[in-house]
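Report of the visiting student (M.T.), summer placement. My assignment was to run the structure pipeline on a short list of targets and document each run. The first record concerns Aa3-type cytochrome c oxidase subunit IV.
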Amino acid sequence: MAEHTDGQSAGGMDIAEQQRTYGAFVKGITWLAGASAVILIFLALFNS
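After the run finished, the structure tokens were exported:
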């Protein structure tokens, strides 16, 4: 029960940090996906 209470008390801070980290992670994944898509388009154009 003590561990559960500790998890709840730190949950607010953890959720805020998780949301910030998750946002940065999604932004990085989106940037990587866009960059790889651009690279694939350039490769397709140059190869054809």
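The mean pLDDT is 82. DSSP finds two helices and no strands in the chain. I thank the supervising group for their guidance throughout the placement.
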